[in-house]
Design brief:
alpha+beta, 2 domains, five-stranded antiparallel beta sheet
């Protein structure tokens, strides 16, 4: 009986049947993968979201606008793992954008480091933006709202300062600039 079954199944029929089901099956697999990835990206299932980094830190080399986007995404991702609200994630991403834009505009390139911080029962995100550019001769003037030596509106560093809980800037002509900020530091759930 086995010989009869083998002889009645034509190779062309098997190939046609495989082609008929291959495309819908492949499409279904792609749709499922898309839905899985999308759920991870938009946070519908936080357990499936990206695994925490071993060091709780991300470093992004800043050389272009695309790097600013990457730094924003890394900051949002790290902060979301701590459990910050959507509004705080937006604050973090905006602060990262402001300090990163300054790197590109005034130094050409630099680095942004985003890391988890813990102080007692409080957690937060620390952002350090550094470059080896020309530095800032007059920090007081640069930190005034509306002051701009470039083509911007003067929102960069003063805007970043307003978004952060703590803000520190160190710079000297010819020595580059380092901006350090913490935001928002919040009490962990269940801590007294």
């Amino acid at each position: 009986m086995t010989d009869q079954v083998k002889s009645t199944v034509k190779p062309a029929a098997v190939a046609a049947l495989a082609q008929t089901f291959t495309f819908p099956l492949a499409l279904a697999v792609l749709v499922l993968l898309f839905l899985l990835i999308q759920s991870r990206l938009d946070g519908r299932d936080p357990k499936l979201r990206y695994a925490p980094r071993a060091a709780g830190e991300a470093r992004v080399r800043i050389r272009s606008s695309a790097d600013i986007v990457a730094a924003r995404q890394q900051g949002r991702e790290l902060a979301s793992l701590v459990g910050f609200s959507v509004s705080n994630l937006t604050l973090i991403a905006t602060a990262i954008s402001e300090v990163s834009r300054n790197i590109i505009e005034y130094a050409g390139e630099g680095e942004v480091t985003i890391r988890f911080i813990r102080e007692g029962n409080r957690t937060g995100v620390k952002i350090v933006a550094s470059d080896t550019g020309p530095g800032i001769a007059d920090l007081k003037a640069v930190m005034r709202d509306g002051f701009s030596t470039g083509h911007g509106m003067g929102m960069g560093l003063p805007g970043a300062r307003r978004l952060m809980d703590d803000f520190e800037i160190s710079s000297a002509p010819g020595a580059g600039t380092t901006v350090t900020g913490r935001l928002p530091v919040r009490a962990r759930e269940g801590a007294a």
